[in-house]
């Protein structure tokens, strides 16, 4: 296809503003998929998802469209991952296209996530067409939302397209706007091959499928190619475009988007943002901005029932097949037995994975305190990465500790602003910006990621009754007064509850933790001290009173068997507990103790 007749675009939208509905409409109204096939295809996709227990990611589609000017165009829609943790993947998808449709629900207005994605699109030099959706709703306020787009984002919205993706109203205008207002791609057909790896996923029949955007040159079936960042070499077995079913093609030229397979074993072998070229006579320089994805939040996942360890291993391996950004290694804990230490791109990623393990694979999990990655600067100049607070080296060798900081953007109705500012302040935040658009405020805070990983999002939602939207990006590492707090139950350290905290907040956290645990641990026949400590120093303490007269108290020394028998009696019927020394802690305590109020 001639470059002038190609348009590549993505759709930027907040969750529920109608991205999928609009995409479906564009596909349907151009006859890319017939109405009957549309339904069947959707069902198919869902069945396959259910059957394989994996998400079929790419909602990339190539649409053939004859415009009002009588010319035939190829429109490529690339779907971008929906959530904030995948900011890098979103940025790569955006680099693969020249423009975006900015879809805003006319009854809701601009949200934080929309903002972040619009800025990514602008960074990628996109032409942006604002689209106001859901104008069929009585609550729609298109004029106000149009003004909001201009005020908050600074885009000219005077020619925003008004649509109802649901009823189909305005869909032809969207297609014309794509052709008329978005620029065609640029590229050189006679130059060496240069293509961007945009995404990849695992298909049970085809193996790893790689989505690419060709920048320069031509890729053909049978070509020998190499990935410039990883150095891996492959032969192209199959080359297709997605309509959205795979349709084989002989070649893909500049500006085109398609997929290939090449006997690649795992999704892990493909790196989003890598440059693909020919093994011989390849291009000299790779595309800029490549960044290997690194996990930033770690936590331990253990089965509640240790007999489910193998099930957990299988489930994790399956999930990892299609999620290269999720890392895991086996871990054993004195308290929790065998499990996995897992790394995630962010908090939401962690929640999604944990949720899927529990829901789709039916495994009850204990999640240990999520920890960010700390940089431990040793006295000898070495820098270590700390993924698990339990592994903190001897402090006499540590010079200082650095923690990751984020830039958080929060959009919130005026009424709740005070509470939001207080929350951010309480979490060691530094306010950077505060602006208004209509009755909504936008605040930008510099916050330690550590303070956000626990329950920031939950708290934000609850104090704003769900009206706030939140987005963040990691900005860098900074030194602070950070210490490891341990929790001791009956004088035994419980590693799963160890955490790094800011020194000034340690007492508060420690006290809250001890109080919570006191409520959550059932009484035993003996008194149980519950303590929080830094190094050897106890900073908070609670005592759980004995259940009743301490029957073992009289069994000084000698009569160990009698003591044991008595304790055993108490134990009967309490299966869902973990034994810590002499104390049993219910599973629920681990999760609840980590949630701070
Ligand atoms: P995610 O898939 O969760 O990211 O959401 P999305 O942005 O893709 O939104 P989706 O297309 O799933 O639409 C969200 C809801 O809004 C659905 O219940 C749609 O039926 C509804 N919806 C989408 N477009 C319109 C519209 O034009 N009018 C009305 N009334 N409802 C719409």
Question: Could you explain the architecture of this structure?
Answer:
- Helix 1 crosses helix 6 and helix 12 (503-520) packs antiparallel against helix 14 (587-594).
- The termini are far apart.
- Mean pLDDT is 86; it is low at 46-58.
- The chain is an alpha+beta fold.
- Helix content is 27%, strand content 34%.
- The protein has an eight-stranded antiparallel beta sheet with strand order 11-10-16-7-8-15-12-13, covered by helices on one side. Strands 2-3-1-4-5-6 form a six-stranded mixed beta sheet, with helices on both faces. Strands 22, 23, 24, 25, 26 and 27 form a six-stranded antiparallel beta sheet that branches.
- The chain contains 14 helices and 34 strands.
- Guanosine-5'-triphosphate binds at residues 13, 15-21, 82, 133-134, 136-137, 164-166.
SSE order and pairing:
Layout lengths: L5 E8 L5 H11 L5 H18 L8 E6 L5 E7 L8 H9 L3 E7 L6 H12 L3 E7 L8 H12 L7 E2 L8 H11 L12 E10 L3 E10 L2 E2 L3 E4 L5 E3 L2 E5 L3 E3 L2 E2 L4 E5 L13 E4 L18 E7 L5 H13 L5 E7 L3 E8 L2 H13 L5 E3 L3 E2 L1 E5 L4 E4 L11 E16 L3 H10 L3 E8 L2 E9 H4 L3 H8 L5 E11 L2 E8 L2 E2 L5 E4 H18 L7 E7 L2 E8 L15 H12 L5 E4 L2 E4 H8 L3
Parallel strand pairs: 1-3, 1-4, 4-5, 5-6
Antiparallel strand pairs: 2-3, 7-8, 7-16, 8-15, 9-14, 10-11, 10-16, 12-13, 12-15, 17-19, 17-20, 17-21, 18-19, 22-23, 22-24, 24-26, 24-27, 25-26, 28-29, 28-30, 28-31, 31-32, 33-34
Helix pairs in contact: 1-6, 12-14
GO molecular function: GTP binding; GTPase activity; guanosine tetraphosphate binding; ribosome binding; translation elongation factor activity
Membrane topology: Peripheral membrane protein
Subcellular location: Cell membrane
